[in-house]
Write a structure and sequence with these properties.
Blueprint (H helix, E strand, L loop, with lengths): L2 E3 L3 H9 L7 E5 L7 H10 L2 E5 L5 H4 L8 H10 L3 H7 L1
Parallel strand pairs: 1-2, 2-3
Length: about 90
Amino acid sequence: SIGVSNFSAQEIKDMTQGGAEMPAVNQVEAHVFWNQEKLRKEMQELGVAVVAYSPLGNSGFHGEKSGISSDLVGEVAKESGLTPAQVMLNY
Protein backbone atom coordinates (compact mmCIF):
# COMPACT_ATOMS: atom_id res chain seq x y z
CA SER A 1 0.00 0.00 0.00
CA ILE A 2 1.00 3.58 -0.56
CA GLY A 3 0.13 6.81 1.20
CA VAL A 4 0.02 10.43 0.12
CA SER A 5 0.03 13.74 1.92
CA ASN A 6 -2.08 16.82 1.19
CA PHE A 7 -3.69 15.36 -1.94
CA SER A 8 -7.08 16.58 -3.12
CA ALA A 9 -9.66 14.09 -4.36
CA GLN A 10 -8.97 15.24 -7.91
CA GLU A 11 -5.24 14.67 -7.53
CA ILE A 12 -5.88 11.13 -6.33
CA LYS A 13 -8.26 10.48 -9.23
CA ASP A 14 -5.69 11.83 -11.69
CA MET A 15 -2.97 9.71 -10.14
CA THR A 16 -4.95 6.48 -10.28
CA GLN A 17 -6.24 7.14 -13.80
CA GLY A 18 -2.59 7.37 -14.80
CA GLY A 19 -2.09 3.81 -13.60
CA ALA A 20 -0.87 4.37 -10.04
CA GLU A 21 -2.18 2.33 -7.15
CA MET A 22 -5.01 3.83 -5.10
CA PRO A 23 -3.43 5.16 -1.90
CA ALA A 24 -4.52 3.64 1.37
CA VAL A 25 -4.15 6.89 3.28
CA ASN A 26 -4.01 10.65 2.75
CA GLN A 27 -2.31 12.60 5.55
CA VAL A 28 -3.65 16.15 5.92
CA GLU A 29 -3.78 18.85 8.56
CA ALA A 30 -7.02 18.32 10.45
CA HIS A 31 -8.23 19.41 13.88
CA VAL A 32 -11.13 21.13 15.62
CA PHE A 33 -10.47 24.42 13.83
CA TRP A 34 -9.95 22.89 10.38
CA ASN A 35 -12.02 19.74 10.18
CA GLN A 36 -11.53 19.07 6.45
CA GLU A 37 -15.16 17.93 6.23
CA LYS A 38 -15.41 18.05 2.43
CA LEU A 39 -12.08 16.31 1.90
CA ARG A 40 -12.87 13.63 4.49
CA LYS A 41 -16.15 12.86 2.70
CA GLU A 42 -14.40 12.70 -0.68
CA MET A 43 -11.71 10.39 0.71
CA GLN A 44 -14.35 8.13 2.23
CA GLU A 45 -16.06 7.87 -1.17
CA LEU A 46 -12.71 6.87 -2.70
CA GLY A 47 -11.96 4.38 0.07
CA VAL A 48 -8.92 6.35 1.27
CA ALA A 49 -8.35 6.76 5.02
CA VAL A 50 -7.56 10.25 6.31
CA VAL A 51 -4.84 10.64 8.93
CA ALA A 52 -4.48 13.99 10.68
CA TYR A 53 -1.27 15.83 11.28
CA SER A 54 -1.19 18.80 13.65
CA PRO A 55 -4.20 17.42 15.57
CA LEU A 56 -3.47 19.91 18.37
CA GLY A 57 -3.87 22.81 15.94
CA ASN A 58 -1.40 25.01 14.16
CA SER A 59 -1.12 28.37 15.92
CA GLY A 60 1.40 29.59 13.36
CA PHE A 61 -1.19 29.31 10.62
CA HIS A 62 -4.54 29.60 12.38
CA GLY A 63 -3.64 32.20 15.00
CA GLU A 64 -2.28 32.32 18.49
CA LYS A 65 -5.57 31.43 20.20
CA SER A 66 -6.32 28.28 18.22
CA GLY A 67 -5.60 24.71 19.14
CA ILE A 68 -4.94 23.82 22.75
CA SER A 69 -4.58 27.55 23.57
CA SER A 70 -8.15 28.27 22.48
CA ASP A 71 -10.57 29.57 25.07
CA LEU A 72 -13.25 27.29 23.63
CA VAL A 73 -11.07 24.19 23.95
CA GLY A 74 -10.12 25.22 27.48
CA GLU A 75 -13.78 25.61 28.43
CA VAL A 76 -14.72 22.20 26.99
CA ALA A 77 -11.73 20.63 28.75
CA LYS A 78 -12.73 22.11 32.09
CA GLU A 79 -16.36 21.03 31.70
CA SER A 80 -15.42 17.49 30.71
CA GLY A 81 -12.56 16.94 33.15
CA LEU A 82 -10.01 16.54 30.34
CA THR A 83 -6.88 18.40 29.35
CA PRO A 84 -7.08 20.69 26.30
CA ALA A 85 -4.86 18.22 24.42
CA GLN A 86 -7.24 15.36 25.22
CA VAL A 87 -10.16 17.41 23.90
CA MET A 88 -8.34 18.12 20.65
CA LEU A 89 -7.24 14.50 20.19
CA ASN A 90 -10.70 13.12 20.99
CA TYR A 91 -12.21 15.32 18.32
